[in-house]
Write a structure and sequence with these properties.
alpha+beta; 5-stranded mixed sheet; 5 strands; about 30% helix; elongated; binds FE2/S2 (inorganic) cluster
């Protein structure tokens, strides 16, 4: 990566939920702030800004990443997926989103974008996860409302539906 001037704003072009987007960022701007404030994609939430809560999780080239721990300039040329990209073009919920809805897997919803993106990666990597594997995969996502059981139930239900098992 070339050396970037500290106070200059640099062009960042990436793919966001299938569309090419371009914005400008100082070298120190976090990807989470870039998405929310420069691009206007406010579905990604910011809680701790220290990599602890998982609320800001997005997929970067298919890998779940805490966007508060990544610089916006590192997103150049990358494929970013956020919660806004999980539903279909006609805004139908993904199987995972629908399972969250059915299972009451959210209350205030602040943590939900991070859970959905983390679980999307999990289910793409492992279509038939055990409950223990789901809990392990979600160990970096914090929820202050639900007690987690409904989230795990939703993940198992969505996995089964996506496998055609239910
Ligand atoms: S806001 Fe990024 S992990 Fe909490
Ligand atoms: S639903 Fe409120 S923090 Fe998780």
């Amino acid at each position: 990566m070339p050396i970037l001037k500290r106070d200059a704003r640099h062009e960042v072009t990436c793919t966001l939920n299938g569309e090419t987007v371009t914005g400008h960022a100082e070298p120190r701007l976090l990807l989470s702030d870039f998405l929310r404030h420069e691009i206007g994609a406010t579905g990604t939430h910011v809680g701790c800004e220290h990599g602890i809560c998982g609320a800001c999780t997005v997929l970067v080239d298919g890998v779940a990443v805490r966007s508060c721990l990544m610089l916006a300039v590192q997103a150049r040329g990358r494929n970013i997926e956020t919660v806004e990209g999980l539903s279909g073009p006609d805004e139908t919920l993904s199987p995972l989103q629908a399972a969250f809805h059915r299972n009451f897997a959210l209350q205030c919803g602040f943590c939900t974008p991070g859970f959905l993106t983390s679980l999307t990666e999990v289910l793409e990597r492992n279509p038939d996860p055990s409950e223990a594997e789901i809990r392990e995969a979600l160990s970096g996502n914090l929820c202050r409302c639900t007690g987690y059981q409904e989230i795990v139930d939703a993940a198992l239900e969505a996995a089964a539906e996506m496998r055609g098992a239910s």
